[in-house]
Design a protein that fits this description.
single chain, 216 residues, alpha/beta, Rossmann fold, five-stranded parallel sheet, 6 helices, 5 strands
Length: 216
């Protein structure tokens, strides 16, 4: 059975990604990163999903990075803005070089465990605001891994050209338990329904004509 590492946050996109590769017959190895994000409830969601699926779940603690990362997601001095992902204020939620950091660690983990594939759930809705969620980044990180390891690891981003609505529809077809996922950036008990990722989630379910049990 082919093995693949899934960069798994416990969010909607990465959960659909996880189910997609399980459905394809892969032996999936989900890894989750704690880098000091305010919405660390997503880690609990990731653990719960893996437990229900009977998967070994690896959590990598990078909390020490928090003091070096200037982002609304990690700093108590920066307020997470409300609004749509395309709003200029959403740049406050960019974590500098996040996906590069996470994928490099995932690649080292992969090579150490003789696994040659990693999957990440970046998608078209991320492109407007996050530089490390674009095709150019995925292409370059794959070039890097060709030269930085004896046994190169390939990064797959199958949602790169999909919208959030497309991902919701795919998740529904795969019977993904959306109610077990976490999207909100604000780190509260319930989804705020106003931040960029909540706004995108609400729009996606509405456009897919699917009820979301998470958003009341």
């Amino acid at each position: 059975m082919n093995k693949i590492i899934i960069v798994f946050s416990g969010g909607l996109d990465s959960t659909v990604l996880l189910y997609k590769y399980i459905n394809k017959g892969y032996d999936v190895k989900p890894i989750t990163f704690y880098y000091g994000q305010k919405h660390h409830k997503e880690i609990d969601c990731a653990s719960s999903i893996c437990l229900k699926l009977g998967l070994k779940h690896s959590i990598i603690n990078l909390q020490s990075l928090q003091r070096f990362l200037s982002s609304g997601l990690t700093s108590n001095d920066i307020t997470i803005p409300d609004g749509h992902y395309e709003d200029e204020t959403m740049k406050l939620t960019v974590v500098p070089n996040r996906n590069s950091i996470l994928l490099n660690i995932a690649a080292a983990y992969a090579e150490s465990n003789k696994i040659n594939k990693i999957a990440i759930g970046v998608h078209a809705g991320d492109h407007a605001i996050y530089p490390d969620c674009r095709k150019e980044f995925i292409d370059k990180i794959n070039e890097l891994f060709l030269t930085s390891m004896y046994n190169p690891v390939t990064v797959e981003a199958p949602f790169l050209n999909l919208t959030k609505t497309d991902i919701v529809k795919l998740g529904a077809s795969l019977k993904v338990p959306f109610e077990d996922t976490w999207s909100c950036y604000k780190g509260e008990i319930y989804h705020c329904g106003k931040c960029g990722t909540c706004t995108e989630r609400i729009e996606a379910f509405k456009m897919a004509n699917i009820k979301d049990k998470v958003m009341k």
